[in-house]
Task: inverse folding
């Protein structure tokens, strides 16, 4: 279940450790998501599919908000880091 639908964060380590900006984005996103969990009092378990986790938590709204917060921050900052690296690489080759 973990491999097909659960969290498999270990697969992202090579990408995070390869770029400090991506690693920082992951840390910031995790911190923000944890803060939302703390503020809403949501409790859940790990290694379940993302679409099931909110419904087995103590606060479906709180956990969903934490998940969306973490995803949005991680996605936005990682995209920005990658676009910046692409722009820098294109400028260096021209």
Result:
């Amino acid at each position: 279940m973990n491999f097909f639908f659960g969290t498999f964060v270990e697969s992202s380590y090579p990408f995070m450790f390869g770029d400090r900006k991506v690693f920082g984005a992951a840390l910031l996103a995790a911190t923000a998501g944890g803060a939302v969990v703390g503020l809403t009092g949501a409790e859940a378990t790990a290694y379940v599919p993302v679409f099931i986790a909110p419904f087995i938590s103590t606060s479906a709204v709180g956990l969903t908000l934490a998940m969306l917060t973490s995803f949005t921050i991680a996605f936005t900052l990682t995209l920005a880091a990658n676009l910046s690296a692409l722009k820098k690489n294109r400028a260096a080759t021209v």
The helical segments are 13-18, 20-40, 60-93.
